[in-house]
Amino acid sequence: MANLSRKDVEHVAHLARLGLTDDELGTLEGQLNHILDQYAVLAELETDQIAPTAQTIELENILRKDEVRPGLAAEEVLALAPERAGPYFLVPPILGEHGN
Amino acid sequence: MSTDLTRLHAHQMAAGLRRGDFSAHELTAAHLDRIAATDRPLHAWVFVDRVAALREAEAADDRIVLAREEGADALAALPALLGVPVALKDLILTRGEPATAGSRILDGYVSPYDAHISERLKAAGAILPGKTNMDEFAMGSSTEFSAWGPTANPWDLERVPGGSSGGSASAVAAYQVPLSIGTDTGGSIRQPAALTGIVGLKPTYGRVSRYGIVAFASSLDQIGPFARDVRGAALLLAAIAGRDERDSTSAPIDVPDYAAQLPESDDEAAASLRGVRLGLPRQYFVAGMEPGVETRIREAVARLADAGAEIVDIDLPHTDYGLATYYIIAPAEASANLARYDGVRYGHSVRLEGGDYIADYLATRGGGFGAEVKRRIMLGTYALSAGYYDAYYLKAQKVRTLIKADFDTAFDQVDALVAPTSPTVAFRFGTRLADPVAMYLSDACTLPVNMAGLPGLSVPCGLSDGLPVGLQLIGRPWDELRLFQLGRAYEAITADAAWRTVEPRDLAALEDPATPSATDRAAAVGAAA
């Protein structure tokens, strides 16, 4: 059923924001095609009239009271930041010279 | 005390603490000493905080002393797990401590808050000595996909403990703790319980709040207990289960006092089997099942029948489609959940010169994730991508409906199902690493249960080639109590079985300084993941 080319694998890796080496891309091309071949059995089943299941318990519209509560300790959270500037996370620019 | 406290069951520890036979400090110190003496070859733990555990134990002792002064009622009202050590899988957050989910991308992460179950266990006075090893992001069936090296199986140190909760399973099997917590997305509690000869439960989807747990596949993930007997698992589930409004999928359904409803006497437990209708799904005796495993399962079913259970042959016709369905749905959900690891707010982060943020993401994620996690992200991203969504993801969701309907039909006829947990006993390091599909087949008998959201219990049922085999009991939604009762009854009718006296055969080797570490053993067979 499936036949992913090397170019397809590179495209999916880019969509997934995974920087992969040439070796990894080569290995994945073989493995992904082998795994996708296992999916082919699903085509045997007639499912036009079958509703999809996204989750198994019948809970809907779960809401809680909209009330003010303490958040996480800002210092503990910011201490995890790779780069920070005072009380802010420092992030790479996404607008301007290098942004898109 | 001359007795080795680490050999007791959890309920015996709780009773001994109340009687004053030993203190929580003594009990905790005995376990910490055992971890220190045995974990180099086993590698069940990735983080142990001895000082904090002993401090928690002293607080537990204070509560016990106070209750004893107040009288018998106050002692009886103490939480069941007060003073009892419980290991946590390394994807459960505990404030101020690391949680890596077995991944380099979370190296150095320190949790800024407690998971719901961590809060519950702390309030109950359970002792939390640290975190156990696991396959990266819970993706795997052998614990070989941990970024920190594999965990060994105390039954044979050259074999895997199963996974992904392999550290939690081996820690209980090797008497490092009486109880531990795992998570189960496709079999990650039940399969390692089977492979290490202990009890493990995957509760009904929605039974336990997942607030503060690193997510893998959100429509499948569920938290559950490991123990060396059914009562221990029942005590631990009661301590963590129930509605928590911070997880909107945790259900507002009453949690019974499971352990209180399990008979003390073996005769009473065995008698409860009379008239119970148990379904035997023929599709679970799969191609590739080891003959020794099948023999043990069929013997176990015969014992249940001898004790008065009615065995009914059941068809679950869509079982063979489970593997493909699971390996579309779980990676798809994982690819979305793992998008959060972008190196901006926490965790592994690469900032390249030049300021191209896409290049930063590619380098952060490409270097931070291991091989299996990348494989699943790729599968999931592909299955959800434009042009393939209907053919893969939507199709899998429809087949999921058929798989669930099979179980619904079965439960019209029977009270529970009995099946193998794993088609094989514990396998050797390295034997399934090169072939992802071979590794995925480890969970053929467990993953349909996750897709239907049902509870599943694995209990030990004997040995094949000297290695443990697990019997899986599958129940209706929210019917964990019946699974515990059946598991307890099976313990009762096999209480005198010779295999129950057999210890994990490499227990002595764990304490021998000449025994190689788990990582060295795995590397020796070329299996470093």
Explain this structure.
The complex is a heterodimer of chains A (100) and B (529). Chain A is mainly alpha-helical and 100 residues long. Chain A has a domain of 39 residues: Histone, subunit A (Orthogonal Bundle). Chain A has three helices and two strands; from the N terminus they run αααββ. The longest helix of chain A has 18 residues. The model of chain B has no long low-confidence stretch (mean pLDDT 96). Helices cover 40% and strands 11% of the residues of chain B. Chain B has a single domain, classed as Amidase signature (AS) enzymes, CATH 3.90.1300. Chain B has 19 helices and eleven strands. In chain B, strands 1-3-2-4-6-5-10-11-9-7-8 form an eleven-stranded mixed β-sheet, with helices on both faces. In chain B, α8 packs antiparallel against α17. The two termini of chain B are 43 Å apart. Chain B is of the alpha/beta class and 529 residues long.
Characteristics:
heterodimer; A: 100 residues; mainly alpha; two-stranded antiparallel sheet; 2 strands; B: 529 residues; alpha/beta; Amidase signature (AS) enzymes; eleven-stranded mixed sheet; globular
Give me the secondary-structure topology.
The complex is a heterodimer of chains A (100) and B (529).
Chain A: H1 6-15, H2 22-39, H3 74-78, E1 84-85, E2 88-89
Antiparallel strand pairs in A: 1-2
Chain B: H1 10-19, H2 24-42, E1 45-48, H3 50-70, H4 72-76, E2 86-89, H5 116-123, E3 130-132, H6 166-173, E4 179-184, H7 190-196, E5 199-202, E6 222-227, H8 230-240, H9 266-271, E7 277-281, H10 291-306, E8 310-314, H11 322-337, H12 357-368, H13 371-384, H14 389-413, E9 416-420, H15 436-440, H16 447-451, E10 456-464, E11 467-475, H17 480-493, H18 507-510, H19 518-524
Parallel strand pairs in B: 2-3, 2-4, 7-8, 7-9
Antiparallel strand pairs in B: 1-3, 4-6, 5-6, 5-10, 9-11, 10-11
Helix pairs in contact in B: 2-3, 8-17, 11-13, 11-14
